[in-house]
Amino acid sequence: ASSAADAPHFDLVLLGLGVDLAEGPPELCAQTVRSLLSSATSRLFITSTAARSVGPYWQSLTSLSGVSGDDLADAGFLGLKAKLGGYTEAAKIQSDIVDLWHRRTAEEAVYAMLVLIDGVTQPLPAMADQKPVPNMESLTRAIDKCPDQFRGCFTSPRCLQSLACISQCGLADQSCSYTCIVSYSSDEFTQFSLCALQKQNLLNSQIERPTTPRAVPMESFRGAPLTHDVAEGVLVGHFDPGAGRRHGWLVAAGSNPAYEQFALQYQLWYKGSAKNTFWYHPTFLVEGLDGQKIWRARDYRVRRKDTPGMWDFSVVDNGIISEERWHLLGADAALPNSVMAFSWGPVNITSH
C-alpha cells in the first residue's frame, strides 16, 4: 500500500461553455455551486454569444493560474496592465480560448480545450510543437542567407502588408493567414517565404504532421481487393478529357476550417506523361479582405505509400513546401461520392 503522499496529484480544471451561463444559478443554488467549485485550481467560463462576456456570477468564479476573472477581462491598452500585473500569459490563454471557440468549428473547439489543458495544468508535447519560437540563431542565419529576400520584402509595400496582416491573425488561424497572403500576394513575399521561412526556418518551427487519429483506407472496391491502380482510378473518377469529360470531383463537405473556407473546390487527379507519375490539381475560390473573388490552382505531386489507398502529396504554396498524407476511406461503385482523410504538415529544410 502506498501513502497519501505518494498518490498522484491532479489539478482540477472546470471549463464552462454555453450561452446559458450568461446568468447565474438560482439564489438557493448559487452558494452550493460556489462551494463545489472552490476546490478547482483553475476555472474558466466562456459563452457562445456575440458579446463574448459571461454574467457577473460566473465572472466572479473565474480564475486562471490565480488570476481573477475581472483582471483577465481587462488586460489594459496593448496588454500593458497584464504585463505590469504579471499575468500576460494567463490573459493570453483566456483570449486564445475565447477566439478559438468563436470560430465555431469542431476542430478549433477541441484545440481550445488543448490550449486550456496545456496552459493551466501541464504542458502537452503536441502543443509545444505548435509554438514556433524564433531565436537569435535562426534570425541571424536567415538574415545572413537571405539578404536579397529580406531587402526585397521590406522594400515592398505589399509584402509588408502581408506580414502585418498575418501578425494580426489569431492563434493557429490558417484561414486568416491564407486570406492575408492572397489579398497581398506578391513575388517578394513568395521569395521571402521560400528562403527565410522555408529553407532557413526563421521561425524555428518544429511542427510535424500529426500521427493520430489513424485513418485506415478502404480494403476493397466493387467487390475486388483495392490495388494501387484501382485506388488511383477512384481518384481520377470521371475525369477523361479525351472523351470530353473534363470534370472530376467537387468537395461537398469537410471538417478542416482551413480548407472549408473555400466556397468552391474542384479536384482533378491524373497520370503524368512521365512513367509512374501522378498529379493532383485542385482549383478553388478564395475571398480576399476586400471581398474580391480570386480563383487559385495548385499542382501537387502524388507519391504512393506501401498501402493501396494511401499517398503523400507535396506542393510549394506561396514559398512554403508542404506535405499531406491522404487516405481513401470509401467510394460508391458508380463514383457519385467518395470520402477522403488527410493530415498536413510543413517541410522544414534548414540550411546551415
Automatic annotation (TrEMBL):
Gene3D superfamilies: 2.40.128.20. GO terms for molecular function: violaxanthin de-epoxidase activity. Pfam families: VDE. GO terms for biological process: xanthophyll cycle. Residues 143-292 form the VDE lipocalin domain. It comes from the Eukaryota. PANTHER family: OS01G0716400 PROTEIN, VIOLAXANTHIN DE-EPOXIDASE, CHLOROPLASTIC-RELATED. This is VDE lipocalin domain-containing protein. It comes from Polarella glacialis.
